[in-house]
Design brief:
The structure is a single chain. This protein has about 325 residues and is α/β, with parallel strands linked by helices. It is built from ten helices and twelve strands. Helices cover about 30% and strands about 25% of the residues. An eight-stranded mixed beta sheet has the order 6-7-8-3-9-10-12-11, sandwiched between helices. Helix 3 packs parallel to helix 5. The longest helix is centred in the middle third of the chain and has 18 residues. The structure holds iron/sulfur cluster. The site of iron/sulfur cluster has 13 residues, from loops.
């Protein structure tokens, strides 16, 4: 079966203008040649530090940012060939901040029902019943539909956000840091809910997070991003058990393992993430890489298969 989502060499560059004269001062390469596939019913975890391009990539997938190059193919059809309304029904997004993503002046029931109203789905009675069903699905009582967002906790609001995305029976949900603003115990509940719903409705997720431990709980495959590019990608179990790329190793070394006796030595990343306007030559990770050698400054490594379905962009594993 063809993948539900395919990204072919997708790039998103932003022109930066000089304030006074409006001349182009440079280009931010927020996403710089990303290729990946996501199969129906699976979760792709997209992980990396803040500013690595994950959220821009999410917007490119959703069609909320016009891509500079490459192609996004969804359901076998290029994204720009989709009718906007049909696309919105099949692709939805959950945002990071459950406080700002819900209109404080709208009752919860109305927030969940809104897309059904816009798309004129069912009769009024059927829409009301659907809202009650959606509230039940995300673990909220039907009377909550009459309340306002400020009456809910962060976790409950994120449940409401999930219910809203499910209203149109989408195939793909892009979750952009959906649990980052929540307490750890609430994070686990929302992740459990997302997993249950995925099984029940055969949902496909692109799950974005800066937190590798969160991504490891939910993802079938993981892509590690750095400066707009994928550094490593593969099945999450294989990748987390034996990461190859020094950047993945460093991110993983900062995560607490379930068994403290198996804690890998902490690899401290020195320096900040370089500017995507002026990325380093060669391997973009070389100024911070503890394993960098001469060749890393000269040429940019491409993703190469390193076994177990994992691909890594690192000169330690490939020839020029
Ligand atoms: Fe480090 Fe070199 Fe590999 Fe880049 S190519 S990750 S700098 S070892």
């Amino acid at each position: 079966m063809p993948p539900l989502l395919e990204l072919i060499n997708v790039a998103k560059h932003f022109k930066v203008k000089n304030g006074m004269l409006g001349l182009q001062a440079g280009t931010v390469r927020a996403v710089d040649g990303v290729s990946l596939t996501v199969n129906r019913g699976e979760t792709l975890g997209l992980v990396g530090e803040s500013g690595c391009g994950k959220s821009t990539l999410a917007k490119c997938i959703m069609g909320l940012e016009r891509i500079t190059a490459g192609e996004v193919v969804f359901g076998g059809k290029a994204l720009n060939a989709w009718d906007e309304k049909k696309l919105r029904r099949r692709m939805q997004m959950v945002f990071q901040d459950p406080y700002s993503s819900l209109n404080p002046r709208q009752k919860i029931g109305s927030i969940i029902r809104e897309s059904l109203d816009i798309h004129a789905i069912g009769t009024k009675k059927e829409r009301r019943e659907k809202v009650i069903e959606l509230l039940r699905l995300v673990g909220l009582r039907k009377e909550f539909g009459e309340r306002y967002p400020h009456e809910f906790s962060g976790g409950q609001r994120q449940r409401v956000a999930v219910a809203r995305t499910l209203a149109l029976d989408p195939d793909l949900i892009v979750c952009d840091e959906p649990v980052s603003a929540l307490d750890v115990s609430v994070q686990a509940q929302v992740l459990g809910l997302l997993k249950d719903l995925q099984k029940r409705f055969d949902l496909t997720y692109v799950f974005i997070s800066h937190d590798l431990s969160v991504v490891s709980h939910i993802s079938d495959n993981v892509a590690v991003m750095y400066l707009g590019r994928i550094m490593e990608i593969g099945p999450s179990q294989t990748l987390f058990a034996a990461p190859k790329h020094p950047y993945t190793k460093a991110l993983l070394s900062a995560v607490l393992p379930p068994d403290p006796a198996r804690q890998p030595e902490r690899i401290a990343l020195t320096g900040d993430l370089p500017s995507p306007m002026n990325p380093p030559s060669g391997c973009p990770f070389h100024p911070r890489c503890p394993e960098a050698f001469d060749k890393c400054r000269r040429g940019r490594p491409q993703l190469m298969e390193v076994g177990g379905g994992v691909k890594t962009a690192c000169w330690l594993y490939g020839a020029e």
